[in-house]
Amino acid sequence: MCCLFGLIDYGNCLSQKQKERIIRVLSRECEARGTDATGIAYMDKGKMKIYKRPLPAHRMRFKLHGNPSVIMGHTRWTTQGSEKRNFNNHPFYSEKLGFALAHNGVLYNDIALRKSEKLPETNIETDSYIALQLIESKNALNFETIKYMAEKVEGSFCFTMLNRDNELYIVKGDNPMCIAHFQGFYIYASTDSILSKALKRLGMKRYEEVKVNEGEILKFDTMGEITRAEFTISQSYGFYGYPCYGGRKSSSYQSANEEYLQELVDYGKFVGIDEELIMELLDNGYDFMDIEELLYEADFYGEDDIYAEI
Questions:
Q1: How is the chain split among helix, strand and coil, in percent rounded to 5?
Q2: How far apart are CA 77 and CA 31, in angstroms?
Q3: Would residue 6 be called left, alpha or beta, if left means φ above 0 and alpha means ψ between -120 and 50 degrees?
Q4: Quick check: pTM over 0.70?
Q5: What interhelical angle do 192-202 and 16-29 show, nearest 10?
Q6: What is the SS3 assignment for 276?
Q7: 119-160 pLDDT, tens per residue?
């Protein structure tokens, strides 16, 4: 459970200070989905800048250089690979191809893929890094290689990738993504509730929602134009569905579901919701993603609103 966020200022509408404030507000709202680490990536004078630390967003101090037009961000809730080792945190960088990658979700076939695709060993322990390696193995970042990666990985995911040409890719699996289009720029975050709260705090209204469907790749160019491609998700049986312990599931799949359920329980405790209520929601047919959204609302509005849902 992590959160993606960022902006694309294709019309050069925003000042550096405005962008710093947007990123600050966005990242702090994204703490609802991860407080273990925070990171951003952007281009400055032809070089990729990545600033990430094992800190919650509210403790980060974002100081941009060169008024970048595209900023890609991530807040992390650790599932694999200690956040204390900063190389495990997002965004990741491909020295070979010059792009940054961030991931929201859990991949559970990363070890098997590294063996079957003969990918190099790495000190990075995070499951997400396999996506970058798969693309690197094809020696290019484009729709074809992203499609190859998205159809190889198994689990829950939404990826963002920023290349050296200041083009942003969004790759949507079964994890959420919400994009707001203003006059001259886009702002995005993983969930509607997080994006809505951030825009409200920023006093930003009058935008159009950009639709992105499961199995789509969106490419935002420097002029703000969107190009789309499609891919087939290799395992489409509701990665975070409930119940999640059927005998036909792999042990890694079961483990990932158990980890996500524990994250929901832990976050519930953080906002004052006990485990019994979360299990009751599961018994009433809510899936993990539904419960996650309700927990955010409980954090914002109060516990009684969750009880009103069941």
A1: 35, 25, 40
A2: 9
A3: left
A4: yes
A5: 140
A6: helix
A7: 999 999 999 999 999 999 999 999 999 999 999 999 999 999
Residue spans per domain, the chain: 3-230, 251-309
Sheet holding 216-220, edge to edge: 92-94, 99-107, 155-162, 168-172, 216-220, 226-230
The β-bridge relationship of strands 155-162 and 99-107 is antiparallel
Residues 3-230: name the CATH superfamily. Aminohydrolase, N-terminal nucleophile (Ntn) domain (3.60.20.10)
pLDDT, tens digit (0-9, with 9 covering 90-100), for 44-66? 999 999 999 999 999 999 999 98
Phi, psi of 132 (to 5 degrees): -65, -40
Do 24 and 62 touch, CB atoms closer than 8 A?
A: yes
Residue 109 to residues 24, 47, 135, 136, 271, Cα–Cα distance (Å): 34, 32, 16, 18, 32
- Give residues with Cβ within 8 angstroms of 268, minimum separation 6: 274, 275, 277, 278, 295
d(CA 19, CA 208): 19
What beta strand segments (E) does 145-273 contain?
155-162, 168-172, 178-182, 185-189, 208-210, 216-220, 226-230
Contact 138, 148 (CB under 8 A): yes
